[in-house]
Amino acid sequence: MERRKFIRLVGGGIVVAATAPMTGCSLSSDYPDKAVEAWGGPRNEVDPRRYALAFAITAPNPHNIQPWLVDLKESGVITVMTDPDRILPHTDPFGRQILIGHGAFIELLVIALASQGITAEVALWPQGELGPALKDWDSRPIARLTLKNTGAVNDPLFAHVLKRHTPKSDYDLGRKVSDQTLRVLMASVTDKAVRVGGTVTPADLLPLRELCVKSAQVEFLTPRTVLETLQLLRVGPDEILQHRDGLAINTWMARALSTIGLFDRSTPPEKGSQAFKAMMAQMEGNSRTAMGFVWLSGKNGRSDQIHAGRAYVRLQLKATELGLGVHPMSQALQEFPEMAAHYASAHQLTLNRPAPVTPDDETLHMFCRLGYAEKPVPATPRRTLAAFVQA
Ligand SMILES: Cc1cc2nc3c(=O)[nH]c(=O)nc-3n(C[C@H](O)[C@H](O)[C@H](O)COP(=O)(O)O)c2cc1C
Question: ∠ at Cα 271 (280, 263), nearest 5°?
Answer without folding.
Answer: 70
